[in-house]
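Dear all,

This email documents one entry for the complex benchmark we are building for the journal club exercise. For each entry we list the sequence lines for every component of the assembly. Then comes the predicted three-dimensional structure of the complex as a token string, followed by one or two observations. Please use this as the template for your own entries, and keep the labels exactly as they appear.
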Amino acid sequence: MRRRPATLHRLAGRALVVLLLGFLILPAAVVAIAAFNERALLAFPPQGFSLRWFTKAFDYRDFQIGWHNGAIVMLAASSLAVVVGTGFAFVLDRYRFVGRGLIETLLLAPLVVPHFTVGLGFLLLAAQVGLMRGFTVVIACHVVLVLPFVLRSVYISLRNLDRRLELAAESLGARPARVLFTVTLPLLVPGIVSGFLFAAILSFNEFTASLFVTAQRTQTLPVAMYNYVREYADPTMAAMSLIFILATTVLLTLANAVFGLGKVLNVDDGR
Amino acid sequence: MQRRPFLGLFVTPAGVTALVLAAALFAVLQYSVRAQIPGSLEVGGFTLENFAAMLRPLYGRVFLTTLMLCVATAAISLVAGYPLAYALVHAKRRSVKSLILVTVVTPLFLGEVVRTYSWIVVLGNNGFINSALLKLHLIAAPLELLFTVTGVTIALVHVTLPVVVIMLAAALAHIDPNYRKAAMSLGAGPARAFLTVTLPLSAPGIIAGFTTAFAWTFSAFATPQLIGGGKVNMISNLVYQLGFANFNFPFAASLSVAALALTLLALWVLRRATRPFEQLGQH
């Protein structure tokens, strides 16, 4: 007799979790269905099956430019962020110096300062120095926005690094540069790689600040998609969204299998 | 032998980056106290007019809507996120754990535009929810979900929920299960053990989750813009509209400054108010 309420509880708990997961999946599932709709007007259940919206998504000029610009900005911004972030994480981990706290506060500020404020700031700054139309301002803005995540990722790697390995190399006569390149950096590779991946994903998806700092010629994919949604209501965006959703899910599942997302996000209880 | 090798070499790029960001934020501050010259991107002399104009009821309402949406979104995410985080941490099978984790994390990586568009398809008059409810004869006319506070809140919770789950799960994962066992061995039922042991010990996760959800919602733009459709406006939408529709960049800048001050104030109040709970979690 005493068993039953516990089982009921457990069932109710499970139902609740399934319901909440359903809420998280719902938009992706609905968009997946809408993407194959034959008609131009969204309707449920969909009328007819068609792949033409996918063709249209790939042929649409602004999206093609968006993929291209997004890739340029993503590669440039994440590479720069990794260089800046790795160096600063290193000195943050080891040295005290004048301005340490100030630089750290500024570089972590984009976690709290809304993206529209950062975007507006870079737009106004670009206007002042006459760099309004190029990629420079877009890339600079993205570097600042993704840097906190690179910093965190590399910093955690540095904290977990066994300093005795460096001391061993040093005591065997290695100069600081040699220790850095043959011991420290190779041990930091996981942190640097995951920092780069984080930065790349965030940069490629960044929207609000990009809307402020991109021009017609430099617009990234999210900006192009936003403009499309404002102008057209056909399922081309559904097709685009489905491509994004599938790519993201595959990448995350892979990352989970290789790195163990639970460990990266610090939610494993160590069992 | 240098005592601090690479210090200068490694600090310089970070210093330059910090300087550029400082210059950008300073530009916002600088524009916020300048007069607008209608029809021009050039700005006039010093003025505090922009900040005075913000006191008009029209803008007060936008500030209020923004704060309300931030609090509601953060609170709903906490309540809905707790069971998910609990299930994530205590799932016995590896595959179930991975399934929950990937499902929870995916919305985070989709980007605001794709996520918002998906919700338009779900919430619209011909959208999924209304079509389904109409087919089942549960409603006679489509529900108004798009262009309402309810619709905007639903779509905002969709992205804050994952963050809150991750933060709660991190807190829950680090609670020593022996505390709970001790409480239960002393006669506490599961409910009592949860309310008096697990819940207080997860306080740091609750606070971090609420704070982050609040700040993220404050920063949201595409969701209120597209799902609110001009009927539900947040500060971000007003800033964009002032800049790109009215070319009134000084006023847009002053709103950003006020918004930033408001965020910092809200986060500070939150931290002060929750300090006693923070200590609870440091076992």
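Observations: Chain B has a mean pLDDT of 89. The domain at 58-280 of chain B is CATH 1.10.3720.10 (MetI-like fold).
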